[in-house]
What we know:
By secondary structure, this protein is mainly β. The chain has one helix spanning 96-103; strands at residues 9-28, 31-44, 49-52, 56-62, 68-78, 83-94, 113-123, 135-143, 146-154.
Amino acid sequence: MSSPTQIDLRLLLEISCDVGPVTSIGATPLGEVRLVSLLGGTFEGPELRGTLLPGGADWQQVRSDGTLEIRAKYLLETEQGERIQVQSEGVRAASPEVLARLDRGELPEPHEYYFRTALRFTTSAPRLLRLNNALGLSYGRREPRRVVLTFFEVL
């Protein structure tokens, strides 16, 4: 098998996820550990649309420089009733000034911070089985009480 000379991305979907308040266990030797409940939401893409089911969670570790290491797991349900488990790991990084604005509830422009995740999918839906072997990439942005993620499938 020859190696690819470039990586192509295809838009998969955009998620709008309502988030709960941050629950912190406090400072640990590796940084602050936090949990953010994913309360639900919607998603839409060229081939998929539906809801993000309540019950997912985003576990975060805040490094000493303020960077968030993100580990999230949640379920999507398409309009046809198909379910997709999403697991993501990523990072949100910004300057101290932008982080302070985010902490105050302000909404910097997406280009002012770095918010990216790598994704894996699991499904039993026959129409979507290719997702079991797919890798995804996303970029995100914060909104009031919401996170919006745009997913791309790596081809």
